Structure formats: structure tokens, C-alpha cells
Amino acid sequence: MPPAPTSAAPFKPLTWPDLTARPRPKADATIAYGSDQMQKIDLWRPTGKGPHPVVLMVHGGCWQTKIADRSLMDWIAGDLRDAGIAVWNIDYRGVDRAGGGYPGTFADAAAAADRLATAAKEYDLNLTRVVAVGHSAGGHLALWLAARAKLPAKSPLVAADPLKIAHVVSLGGLPDLEATAASPDNGCGTDVVAKLVGTDRADPYADTSVPRLLPLGVPQTLVNGREDRIIPYRMAIDYTARATAAGDRVELVTIPATGHVELVTPDSTAWQDTRRRILALLGRPAAR
Prior knowledge:
By secondary structure, this protein is of the alpha/beta class. 29% of the residues lie in helices and 17% in strands. The chain has eight helices and eight strands; from the N terminus they run H-E-E-E-H-E-H-E-H-E-H-H-E-H-E-H. An eight-stranded mixed beta sheet has the order 1-2-4-3-5-6-7-8, with helices on both faces. Helix 2 links the parallel strand 3 and strand 4.
């Protein structure tokens, strides 16, 4: 008799040390947009003649500086640079840092994004079609940056001419802050949301939670790992349904056998799929 078939090995997600133990690529320039050490941007600029297409990148870490900063995105930023894409990798003060929370965390992300417009000529960057890419809590901020034109008129976060974003790619993001605050099973917990949005306002979600600003009028791609143990998969399903019903063009891409870290790990199936999508959005053929 032939041997009985063996069952497949159980899925083992990557951990952050699996990523951070790898050789770390280095950015080409660091640009300050404020006096705090977190108010910085790393520019990853391809070699050769520009103007170079641009990805605006936003790291996650549960909106907390002690968990993550922009350096967590170095590996995929370097990978995009190798593919001919400039990366504007922004940082911001988290809720655990003086000046973070509301409105500081949002104001920082906005200022860092808008600094791209003033730097484009100096660094030979093409801003005709900026793609915003955010991971985890950074997925929320990337979507929020694309929604700034929809902010309530009385919000202190309103800007006269916010950076125009052509497409958002959210990697395991948390776009709906109200749902996050009501979901103890999310890996960031619920207390952090109150620190992020502020609790001394009549409606703290009106200018902070992306569903309140729908429709964004910007196409969106949500990439989620089916076995993500940090961001519940239902959050992507629920947000996609709400945004689509509001009239936005939203695609939910589900990657099997994928957790949270794989989404920003260069040789993973999840990132390779995302990379191809980003290159297509920016009109660049995939080299591999």
C-alpha cells in the first residue's frame, strides 16, 4: 500500500526579528520637517535620470513611537528603490511622545506628506501620480492622508493645498478607528485609539477615522494576510464594503498563508504581489 498522505505543515508566521535580522539597506537622504527627532523623512532615490515616480510610505506600530518608526520600512523601501521607484518614507510623533496624539500625530503625517511637494524639484521627483503605501496603523494614516480634502471645515487639521494622492495601498491596515476601539482582539488594543483621537471633543472620529470621510474619491487597494493575528481580517472586509457602498473604488486582495510581518518582507509572496501592483500603478514594468 502507498504511504498515507502527510498533512501540510501548520502555518508559521514571520516575526519582526525574522525581518530585522536581515542586512538593512540605507536611505539616500534624511530630511527634517520639524524640530522633534521623529519629524524626519527618509528619501530613497533611484540611480539614473529622473523625474522618478514616488511612493509615499507610512510605517505602523500602533501609532506608538516605542513600537516602531520609519526604519521598519527600510527593506521594502530599498526594494522599491531597486525597481526605480523613489520612496518618501515619513515618520511622525506617536501618541506616546510629547506632541503626539491629537492633533499632533495627524499634523505630523500631513506636514511630512506636504513636504514632498516642496522637495520634488530638488530631488527630481515626479508627483503626477503619487501612490501612498501604509502598513498596519500606517495603513490608516495613508488612507487619512488621501482623505484630507474631505476633512470638516472646522477641523484644525484642514490644509489649503494638501498633497494629491492618486492611489492608496493599505497593508494590513486599521482604517476604521471606531471599529478598532470596539475590537479588543486587534493587536494594538483599544486604549491607544482614545489617545490618538482625543476624548475631550464632541465627536473625536469626525476628522480622524477614514469611514467618516468617505467617499475619498481616491482608488484604494487593501492587501491583507488571511492568517494575520494582529489585524482581524474582518476589518478589511467591513471597510471595503463601506467604502464601496459610499462610491469609492476599492479592491481587497487576500493573501493566503500570510500574517502581518510578511506584508513588508521583500521576498514574501505578499510583498511580491504588492510590489507588482505598485509598479503597475506607477507605470513601471515588473523586473521580476
